[in-house]
Amino acid sequence: MARYILRRIGFMLLTMFLVSAAIFLISEVAPGDVARHILGQFATPEQVNLFREQMGLNQPVYLRYVDWLFGSDWRLTGLVGKPLKMIQVNKDDDPSWWAVAPDGTLKQWKMKTEGLIEISRTPDGQQTEAPFNGWQTDKDSSQIFWGVDTAGHVVLWRQGAAQNAGPASAGRTMTESSGEKYIPIRRGLLRGDSGYSARTNRAVWPTLIRRIENSLVLAGIAFVIVMPIALALGMLAGLQEGRFLDRTISLFGLVTTSVPEFAMGVFLILALAFWLKLLPGATVFKSDIAPYQDPKLLVLPILTLTLVEVGYVTRMTRASMIEVMNAPYIRTAFLKGLPYWRIVFNHAIRNALMAPITVIMLHVNWLVGGIVVVESIFSYPGLGLYLLDSALFKDVNAIEAGAMFMVALAVGTQWIADIIYTFLNPRIRYT
Question: Which domains does the chain have, with CATH numbers?
Fold first, then answer.
């Protein structure tokens, strides 16, 4: 068993690696220019090219993939000549990159009208600015310097170089626009750095975590409600095959499965909010923490998910239960004179749960990230809606981070399902 688990973990890691490459390539080759989309149609070609370089989009695809997965700080340390470190200076700000001097002082540089300015931050938190005098001589006898700017790039500055046309759109102004070359600094996805969102210009990971938490709340409550009800209804229908109870449950499952999520959501809003006035009609969430401030806003989304999911799982459980009850070993148990309910509980139920377990584990992945329609109807700030908005904006970093979480969740739930099989059916032995 232990060998099987370790082998499965190895296959999971290999699967995630291959899928990560596919996700990255699909995101990168998708049509549309990210820089042009962010800066707007009135940005000059110089601004677009500069912004593409600042985002690292001018680098080779393989190098961008390595930086996205493993980070770029390890290879950029040699250019700067100092170790690079990401720290959070202020509680409400995103972490920023600094170069670490031998005495522990943190260094950043930025270009102003009067020239290059060095920002120093001592270990006790004091921050000072002073003109920079540490230029180095290049091969062509010009004065250059590699340093870390205030926007998370390793920049090559050349003394006396002309000011470039920096991007200025949607509040995105870059004072560090006089560099000759820009390389974004990243720690890599494997070290918890998902990069910065092109849509919000903030770090992806904090926003993604909040959205995942919201989706887990919605999916978790729906899962706890749906699965016991669906399994119980499916087993009752399977044991009463062809009878009135079976036909009633099957009809209920067929109706709830056939109705699309958006139609179910709109109907529940009309019925419970406008006609019966049992729930608030305004279901728009004004912030990411609104579900916790007003739990009533969760009722309609959860009820929509419950009605959509319960029918599908019920039908799968019913079909599995009927197949097991018609199996030869069940007929043999009846011929031996064993009590009906003993046969059902000791022999039938455990084997009948094999197929539903697979469906349930697959639907965990769907409940967390695939409920885009439900989240869109109720403006629920979850992962599905976040990925949809990111895809429409072509926010590559957000799409890639969210997709990798979904992949990890999918392979993880299937691994758990394989382990559960061994407890449901003792005949299964993994070697």
Answer: 70-164+175-191 (no CATH), 204-424 (1.10.3720.10)
